[in-house]
From TrEMBL:
It is found in: Cytoplasm. GO terms for molecular function: N-acetylneuraminate lyase activity. Homotetramer. Belongs to the DapA family. NanA subfamily. The keyword S-adenosyl-L-methionine does not apply. This is N-acetylneuraminate lyase. It comes from the Eukaryota. The active site is at Y144, K174.
Amino acid sequence: MTPAVGKKATGLIAATFTPLTPEGEINLAEIGPYVDYLLEQQGVKSIFVNGTTGEGMSLTVEERKMLAAEWCSKAKNKLENVIVHVGCMSLKDSQELAQHAGEIGADGIAVISPSFFKPATVGALKMFLQEVAAVVPAVPFYYYHIPAMTGVHLRSRDVLEGIDAEIPSFRGLKFSGSDLMDFGQCVSYSPSHWSLLYGMDEQLLGALAMGANGAVGSTYNYLGSSVNRLISAFNKGDLTMARTLQQLMSEVSGLVLGPPRLPLLPCPQSKAVSIARKLKQVLGVQ
Ligand SMILES: CC(=O)N[C@@H]([C@@H](O)[C@H](O)[C@H](O)CO)[C@@H](O)CC(=O)C(=O)O
C-alpha cells in the first residue's frame, strides 16, 4: 500500500540560486521577492533549494538551515512544493539537515550521492540514502542523480530497484544526466505516485517524450514562462513550437543575487551583457 505522504511534484521546479551579498554572505532579504518573481513572472510554482544551482555544497550546514527555513517560510501558502536538498559528504550532516527540513515543513528532501568517498556499489549508495530518509519517514524523499558533478555513474534504474521497500517515503528521482535511456527505464519502472523529474534543461523536450513528470533546473528561474509554453506545446502535440522554444537558453530576472561563492567565479560583466542582449533579441523583449 502507498504511504500517504506528500503531494506529487510535477511541472517546472526552479533550482534556486542562493542570494549572496557583495561580501559573500547569505542575503535572506532577497528570498521573499524571489518567490513572488517566480510565481508572478515565470509561472513557476515549485522550488528546489540548496542544490547545485544554489551552491549547496559550498555552504555551511548552518547557512543551509537558514536558507531552507527562509525559503519554506516565504513559500508557505504560495508555492506548491519546496524540496530541500540535504545531501552532504557526511552522513551525519545530511541527517541533521533532513531533520531540520522536516521541522520547518519542507514538502520533500533530496539527496545527492557523496562524491569524495564515492559509493562503490548501488547497495552502498542505497544504504546511505536509506539512513538519511529514515530520520524523517513522513517527508517525501527524492534521489538526486547528477553524475557529471559527483562522478558517481551508477545507473538510476538500478538505484530504483526495490527502493520503496527500503525507503517507504521514496517519491521520485531528480535525474540530471544525459542518458535518456536510463531515464526512460526509470519512468517505465516507476509507480504512478513517484515523480520523475528531469534536470538537463537543454534536453527537456527529449525527457518529456520519455515520460518526465516535471523538470528541475537553473534556467527555469528566468525562462520559466517560455518553458511552460514548451510543455504546453508538447502536451498539444505541437512539436515544431516545442523545438523552437527548446532553443532558448537565458534571460535577465532583475533580482539581485550577488556573486557566486569561491571556487566559482563571477560571469564577466561584458559577457553577461552580451548574453542578455542576445536573449532579449530571441525573445523579442526590451
Ligand atoms: C550542472 C547543473 O547545474 N545542472 C542544472 C541544470 O539546470 C543546468 O544548469 C542547465 O541544464 C543548463 O546547463 C541542474 O540540473 C542542477 C539543479 O537542478 C540543481 O540546482 O540542483
